[in-house]
Amino acid sequence: MIWTVVIACLVLAVYVYLRTKRRSDRRNGADDTGLAIVEFGRVFPNEAIREVVTTAGGDAIFLRLHDGKVGCMRARGSRYTCLLIEPGGVLVHNSPSGKGLAIEFHDNPHENGSFEFATSGEAAEVSLWLLGSLLPTAGIEEAPRTLQRDG
Q: Which of 36, 38, 84, 145 is packed most tightly, with the most Cβ within 10 A?
């Protein structure tokens, strides 16, 4: 009877240790923005990255690119899925929390999902990237004109 309790305690201790280690390894790999930038650059070598925003859980990274496109990297264990999103190539909905986005990818429906960010400002910024709002539209000047007043 005593040996059964001792063995059960040892098994429980090993289980807790392995689960904590696995969670720590997953968190360290997913939150490594530098690794994500390197991996995205390897997959899409001709795309220049301007800005990076990571989700609150670290399972996805959004990258604003130089020409108005957006990159999305989703952690799948120790691997990343890299997507290149053209402006308007997704449908974006606000989440009830205000800090997240529900995104439907037109070209990759299996990547659809909810993404929660640390702040509502980050979610709003990523939604602007995805909707192509940072691109100047035809017929609209990039810099506003200043009005001149007479005397």
A: 36
C-beta pairs of 60-65 under 8 Å, 24+ apart in sequence: 60/115, 61/33, 61/36, 62/115, 62/126, 62/129, 62/130, 63/36, 63/37, 64/129, 64/134
Residues 82/104, Cβ–Cβ less than 8 Å: no
Q: Whose CA is closest to 49, among 31, 30, 32, 36?
A: 36
What's the pTM value of the predicted model, to 2 decimals? 0.66
The Cα–Cα gap between 92 and 90 comes to: 6
Per-residue pLDDT of 96-115, as tens digits, reads 888 999 998 888 888 888 99
CA 142 to chain CA centroid, nearest Å: 28
